[in-house]
Design a protein that fits this description.
The complex is a heterodimer. Chain A has three helices and twelve strands. Chain A is α+β, with helices and mostly antiparallel strands. Chain B contains twelve helices and three strands, in the order ααβαααααββααααα. Classes of the chains: A alpha+beta, B mainly alpha.
Chain lengths: 237, 296
């Protein structure tokens, strides 16, 4: 009799505990739309910025030195990566290195909650409402605590999939990263030997190894000048 | 020997035809530079068309890419194929020209050994070759820098792109011109050898050019049968090794290593092949000339 009473009491308490846990979880959990809105609001504080940093290009068929670059951004979606004095190969779709651009036309996307990934980041998928849009799907990996997008994947019809990884530290307050790694699809590169008249020193890699590889561009930001105003002419280069 | 060399140089530079080569080089370089000055963007777009699906190229990028170092490389790419003709024009004439004019026998009546006589002529041809190359260097490199300025150099190879920062380029040009001097001296020594057999300078000049053209075609052909059997032994295969100074090494992350050369041992190997050819051509020429009956 005593054992039966104990069991009943125990399951009653468990149910109450579960109810409260569920209630609080529900109260604290944010919907994907809410998260997107909060991040958008945070990023909207930035009207423009001029950032300075070092850029590393890692593409299978390109050997390029480390470059000192300036990155200019202006609302809503203007972005320019400028090598200060030399030459830098800027990949197509590099406008996506600025996460603000994802939030410009939020009304054109359906926001879908895709749960969490292994690292505990919220996974939010953005599906375009317009079937003819170039973007097929965008996936955001969000650090809910700090309201920061840590990673994004954008699949396009024309230029394959872009991935963006962001590390935050010094400029966390503005939601601006200290380091970004932008990866993109590269098409095959080949010029006829009759044109290049190469010297065959035996070092040319097998062409097949260079095909359909993904390239990355890594920018480590040293400084940001935020909301000081940037002339639109800067972007006409 | 020095006196003999001075006489031979005097003979070379007294002839108006010697200056044809300098004029031709000046004309080609200027025409190329003017063409790129006015329509360089089209040329750059043509080169970039292979990768413009993956990268965005702004006008500023194209302007910076078309800098003096890049123009000089493009000029050398074209001119160093034509230059053997200009070198053969003089080197093929040094012995055959004298035979044609009937002054060879007279020259050999002087108290000078045939070996010394031949070496004097060969060194004079080599000095002419080096001066021609220096002239090209001044026009192509300094002229292009003056017109287009300097910036990073980007080299487009068949399956890779090599970029060097602007402070890592000049020494490469010095090394490349030095190597090109050896490469052209190989052609000069071939023309010099063929000149021994002829009584008329047209023959050795045309024969030299024919050999260079046929060998160049064979060197540029990508046929597995030739790749390991014939190509490594053709001097034309090794003549383009000056480009090796513009092929850079990169670290694991793909970033160019400043001051590096991708395969220096290969360049040194090519250099030694050319030096062996020069030695063989010149020594054969002297050996044959020493046993030759001079009838004219």
């Amino acid at each position: 009799m005593f054992i039966v009473f104990k069991r009943r009491q125990c399951s009653k308490y468990s149910l109450v505990a579960l109810f409260f846990l569920f209630y609080f979880m529900k109260a604290n959990a944010q919907t994907a739309e809410e998260i997107v809105q909060k991040i958008k609001m945070k990023l909207e504080k930035i009207n423009d910025y001029e950032a300075e940093g070092k850029m590393k290009t890692n593409v299978a068929f390109i050997k390029a030195p480390l470059a000192t670059v300036k990155v200019f951004y202006k609302k809503p979606d203007k972005l320019l990566i400028l090598n200060q004095s030399g030459i830098s190969f800027i990949p197509k779709g590099s406008v996506n290195i600025n996460i603000n651009n994802v939030f410009v036309n939020m009304h054109a996307f359906d926001v879908i909650d895709a749960g969490r990934d292994n690292a505990g980041l919220r996974v939010i998928k953005l599906l375009p409402k317009d079937d003819t849009a170039d973007i097929v799907l965008s996936t955001l990996y969000v650090d809910e605590k700090n309201m920061l997008v840590k990673k994004s994947k954008t699949t396009t019809k024309e230029n394959g999939t872009y991935e963006l990884e962001m590390n935050y530290a010094k400029f966390l307050e503005y939601g601006l990263p200290d380091r970004i790694i932008f990866s993109f699809n590269t098409k095959d590169y080949k010029l006829p030997k009759g044109i290049t008249l190469d010297y065959d020193d035996g070092s040319e890699k097998n062409g097949d190894k260079l095909k359909n590889k993904r390239g990355t561009v890594e920018i480590s930001y040293k400084s940001y000048i935020i909301n000081k105003g940037i002339d639109s002419k800067v972007f006409n280069r | 020997m020095w006196k003999l060399l001075k006489i031979e140089l005097f003979k070379i530079f007294k002839r108006p035809r010697t200056y044809i080569a300098f004029g031709a080089i000046a004309a080609i370089v200027f025409l190329f530079q003017i063409a790129l000055w006015f329509d360089g963007k089209t040329y750059i777009e043509l080169i970039l068309s292979n990768i413009d699906a993956s990268f965005d190229f702004s006008d500023q990028f194209k302007t910076r890419l078309l800098n003096g170092y890049f123009v000089c490389f493009a000029v050398l790419n074209i001119l160093l194929i034509q230059m053997p003709l200009l070198v053969a024009l003089i080197a093929g004439d040094v012995i055959a020209g004298e035979a044609n004019m009937g002054t060879l026998r007279l020259s050999l009546t002087k108290p000078v050994g045939r070996t010394q006589y031949m070496l004097g002529k060969f060194f004079a041809s080599s000095i002419y070759t080096v001066l021609l190359l220096l002239f090209l260097a001044v026009l192509a490199l300094f002229g292009s820098i003056l017109l287009f300025g300097t910036n990073d150099l980007v080299i487009f190879r068949s399956t890779s792109i090599h970029q060097m920062s602007r402070d890592d380029i000049f020494w490469r040009y010095i090394a490349a011109f030095g190597y090109a001097a050896v490469a052209l001296t190989t052609v000069a020594s071939l023309a010099f050898l063929l000149s021994v057999f002829a009584e008329n300078s047209i023959g050795p000049i045309i024969a030299t050019m024919s050999i260079v053209i046929v060998f160049t075609i064979l060197s540029e052909m990508n046929i597995p049968l030739y790749d390991r059997t014939i190509k490594p032994y053709l001097f034309t295969t090794h003549m383009v090794a000056w480009k090796g100074f513009f092929y850079v090494r990169s670290n694991e992350e793909g970033a160019t290593i400043k001051g590096s050369i991708e395969n220096l041992p290969a360049i040194l190997k090519s250099l030694s092949v050319l030096l062996i050819y020069i030695f063989l051509f010149v020594s054969s020429a002297i050996w044959i000339f020493k046993r030759k009956d001079i009838l004219s």
